[in-house]
Amino acid sequence: MDKTIEVDAAVIGSGQAAPGLAVALAQRGEKVAFMEAVQIGGSCINAGCTPTKTLRKSARIAHMARRAAEFGVHVGKVEVDFAAAMERMQSRVDTSRSGLESWIKGEPNITLLREWGSFVGRTADGFDLLAGAQKVRAKRVYLNTGTRAFIPPIPGIDGVPYLDNVSLLKLRVQPAHLIVIGGSYIGLEMGQIFRRLGSEVTVIETGPRITSREDPEVSACIASFLAQEGVTVLTGQAVSKVEKAGNNVVVHVGDKRVEGSHILVATGRLPNTERLNLAAVGVEMDSRGFVPTNARLETNVPGIWALGDINKRGAFTHTSYHDHEIVLANDREASKSQAAGPHSADDRIMAYAMYTDPPLGRVGMTETEARASGKKILMATFDMKNVSRAKEESETTGLVKLLVDADTERFVGATVLGINGDEIIQVISNFMAAGASWHVMKNALPIHPTVAEFFPTILGKLKPLA
Hints:
- It is a single chain.
- The protein is an alpha/beta fold.
- The chain has three domains: 221 residues, FAD/NAD(P)-binding domain; 111 residues, FAD/NAD(P)-binding domain (3-Layer(bba) Sandwich); 116 residues, Enolase-like, domain 1 (2-Layer Sandwich).
- The chain has twelve helices and 22 strands.
């Protein structure tokens, strides 16, 4: 067994919090052990944002080419080279991962260990760990191990070659008919992408509607535009079993028998914490393996932090990256150069996007949550079909919904489903972060022609929730 490496900090996992944190610590002179057994960059670079948004662009190009005649452009028959689209995606992933790995290796104070990291026990001033067979002794430990696909115990699922979000991206032969089990963000994004690339697609959601966390009219709008593109959506019935049928697979849902060439299981995520041996140092987990933290992202054990998906404070790349900024801002040494001072994860206003086309941008409360809050809420909605920019670009699907607190005049939530919704929602999230009154936006000078220019108009329609 190799000689023990002694460091100031150990970082286990290389999700979006880890590289920036490790480099920041190293650049201030600390010795850092960086442990990653699979691929540098975690889910985002290897199986999440980078590949799926790259592939989404190929799918959008195909979709717009099919619509070309609407704009007076004639392109003839549209043919998709599925393998080429997938290779373009892979090239982008490889380049991004290589650049990140080079950045980490370029820091002399970082020791990169390509092994699974785990705890052995405590020391007088820190922790003993293993990275494979390599012993590591660290004063502090930061966990950023992310999540993986949850595969529900559907009868027969282990007997068929199902796909998850990782294996789906390894395909180079196009599915004839992709069956997606799960009607939330990953399932809908990939379902629409593969439909636009030329596959038949069926989405099965056992709940009463897709995107169940969103307001009902948002779910209905998404279901409508997916149906218009030929995606079959089945809701409200349980999957009773899955089985093979020759070279195909069959999903039994309610009284229906859905046969396809491939199955994608997109039914949620599980934390990658089982290899960490957290019991050896007393780190607490919940019943599913997530690691609770305080507002500074500290676990119940001093000297150990949990960042990213495993702390259950946001399963997004941007929340993971923000976690490392919170940790640094609350660190006494690092915060000397942080003009804004300490940050709190409890104060973070959640914002996210779903990258269907059109995309869904969301921040703060939904209408349903606002009604349950007990606050005096004002709400205004506006259809995208009435937005000039959307009409000019023939992108009129969707809606805008704004929610404000009548007493404080601050925004409490917003939904932008439509053209550039993922970008536009950040106008509201920034207002919320600043604590600005909605009257400031109402009286501001907007730019024409944009979607966001309609915010003052929409705010003029605010009314109390009935």
